[in-house]
């Protein structure tokens, strides 16, 4: 903060991330509305609270250890080096609190440069990543509604939101991540690091959880459980689209000198510190959204739920390379990926009896996986980052997609959900599922209404209005 | 008496670091936070289990299961 350009850069960056947090908050509101709109009336309150409590639980755990994981684990550890020191990100460090950026209290650990930069960036950068964490956990939430116990879901949400996704971010979404250095992994707007991992995790839970009662006929064919409130679903998905603007720009560093050697060249960069522009990602975001909406409208025969979800899937399918694609490429990829995901969803549903209520495994899991794989082909031979010489390849990105969906998405959550199932806390009792999770809320409401009515009658009698 | 690590804003700003009170007790604060977090899960688990138990008890009484399935009024006292 001792030069004009330095101060402006830091304060602009601080404000920039703060804005992304506000925008990304809309994603969670959208997910809540969407889930409630999809769930049956007898489960509304439970569905809402299940996703709402993701906010505090992932927030505090991401504060305790999630943020540190991102900076400590880019090397694996054990793949390209050891555990890295990240004193600004440990929850007991002074830079995880309100700090003016001047003299550190812990002068042994921190330099003046540390405090100068991280005092202003740490909180907002942490929050931007935290909002990604909510999104990852919330993706799982929609798939499992109407039969999972809230307590079990919240443990899974913490695993996905504050542990596994941030490990994958350290590996494949950090300028020094080993996947960038070794595999040439490229996933600029998080097709794999958010969506594939969350989709893989959702699939793991669904296998243990089983379908909702009545979802499948005795012959194994699926029944359609209609949306309860299509308007709430519509607004929810529009809010998710809106929040995605924050998501996209939060994947960037807004201003950085990207000129190597002599000279200065300021640019926005992606998360790998590779130059990009907001214009490029704005064009590609909108064209991939359009491709997804148009293709899914056709393939679903105009089904509103799938058309909206397909728009989202189009963006997710193009996100891995949306820093570099031409807009028409983004549109065509955005059209191709959701069609495959739509077909896969229905095939998996019939073949394996997977009851994915909101299509999260398809839209996020298959969409994210395919997005990373497609980027490997489309960007073959491009430098994966400015800092390292590794090149993007189909096989590097394919291995990366497997790591995201299977190794960090599916396997850890499959084990965790299996443990929760084994101790009998994964699924709600059958009687409760049949009558609805909101039985207690309704009972309490009826009881309160009866009591109020009785009090009003007594008042009317006492004042002579009623005999 | 001051809980903070600075007493005024008049000096060199580069001398001002942490703004929160009780600097130096961060480790203790994290332990308290972890206790709150883990304790919350234990409390929530007990509360959720008790709630389901009460609901199932209610459903076993009289004709409550049928009433609930038909979307009719069911009270805990019924």
Quick overview:
The complex is a heterodimer of chains A (467) and B (78). Chain A is an all-alpha fold and 467 residues long. Chain A contains 15 helices and 3 strands.
Q: N- to C-terminal separation of chain A?
A: 78 Å
Percent in helix of chain B: 40-55%
The CATH topology of the largest domain in chain A comes to Ammonium transporter fold
Radius of gyration of chain B: 26 Å
Reported for the largest beta sheet of chain A, the result is:
3 strands, antiparallel
Total number of beta strands of chain B:
0
Overall description:
The complex is a heterodimer of chains A (467) and B (78). Chain A is mainly alpha-helical and 467 residues long. Chain A folds into two domains: 433 residues, Ammonium transporter fold (Orthogonal Bundle); 31 residues. Chain A has a three-stranded antiparallel beta sheet with strand order 1-2-3. In chain A, helix 11 crosses helix 12. Chain A starts with a helix and ends in a 5-residue tail after the last helix. Chain B has one domain. The longest helix of chain B is centred in the middle third of the chain and has 35 residues. In chain B, 12% of the residues are buried. At the A-B interface, helix 3, helix 5, helix 14 and helix 15 of A face helix 1 and helix 2 of B.
């Amino acid at each position: 903060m001792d030069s004009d350009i330095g101060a402006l850069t830091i304060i602009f960056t601080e404000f920039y991330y703060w804005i992304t947090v506000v925008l990304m908050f809309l994603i969670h509101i959208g997910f809540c509305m969407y889930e409630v709109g999809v769930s049956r009336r007898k489960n509304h309150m439970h569905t809402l609270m299940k996703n709402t409590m993701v906010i505090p639980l992932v927030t505090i755990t991401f504060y305790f250890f999630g943020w540190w994981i991102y900076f400590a684990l880019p090397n694996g550890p054990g793949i390209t080096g050891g555990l890295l020191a990240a004193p600004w990100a440990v929850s007991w460090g002074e830079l995880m609190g309100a700090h003016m950026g001047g003299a550190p209290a812990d002068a042994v650990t921190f330099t003046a440069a540390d405090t100068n930069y991280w005092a202003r960036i740490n909180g907002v950068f942490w929050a931007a990543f935290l909002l990604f964490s909510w999104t990852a956990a919330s993706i799982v939430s929609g798939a499992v509604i109407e039969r999972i116990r809230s307590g079990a879901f919240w443990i899974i949400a913490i695993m996905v939101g504050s542990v596994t996704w941030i490990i994958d971010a350290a590996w494949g979404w950090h300028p020094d991540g080993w996947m960038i250095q070794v595999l040439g992994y490229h996933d600029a707007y998080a097709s794999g690091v958010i969506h594939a991992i969350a989709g893989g995790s959702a699939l793991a839970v669904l296998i243990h959880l089983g379908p909702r009662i009545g979802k499948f006929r005795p012959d194994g064919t699926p029944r359609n459980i209609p949306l309860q409130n299509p308007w709430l679903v519509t607004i929810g998905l529009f809010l998710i689209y809106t929040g995605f603007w924050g998501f996209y720009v939060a994947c960037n560093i807004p201003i950085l000198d990207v000129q190597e050697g002599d000279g200065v060249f300021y640019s926005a960069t992606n998360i790998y510190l590779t130059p990009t522009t907001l214009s490029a990602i704005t064009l590609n975001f909108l064209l991939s959204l359009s491709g997804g909406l148009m293709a899914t409208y056709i393939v679903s025969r105009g089904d509103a739920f799938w058309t909206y979800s397909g728009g989202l899937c189009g963006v997710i399918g193009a996100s891995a390379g949306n820093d570099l694609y031409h807009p028409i490429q983004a549109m065509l990829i955005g059209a191709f990926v959701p069609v495959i995901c739509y077909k896969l969803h229905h095939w998996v549903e019939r073949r394996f009896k997977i009851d994915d209520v909101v299509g999260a495994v398809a839209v996020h899991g298959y969409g994210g996986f395919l997005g990373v794989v497609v980027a490997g082909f489309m960007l073959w031979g491009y430098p994966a980052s400015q800092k390292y010489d590794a090149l993007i390849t189909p096989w590097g990105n394919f291995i990366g997609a497997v790591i995201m969906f299977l190794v960090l998405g599916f396997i850890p959550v499959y084990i965790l959900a299996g443990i929760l199932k084994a101790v009998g806390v994964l699924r709600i009792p059958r009687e409760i599922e049949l009558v609805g999770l909101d039985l207690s809320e309704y009972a309490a409401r009826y009881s309160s209404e009866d009591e109020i009515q009785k009090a009003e009658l007594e008042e009317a009698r006492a004042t002579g209005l009623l005999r | 008496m001051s809980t903070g690590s600075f007493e005024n804003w008049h000096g060199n700003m580069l001398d001002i670091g942490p703004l929160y009170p009780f600097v130096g007790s961060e480790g203790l604060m994290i332990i308290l936070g972890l206790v709150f977090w883990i304790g919350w899960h234990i409390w929530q688990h007990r509360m959720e289990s008790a709630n389901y138990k009460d609901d199932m008890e209610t459903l076993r009484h009289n004709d409550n299961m049928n009433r609930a399935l038909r979307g009719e009024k069911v009270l805990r006292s019924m």
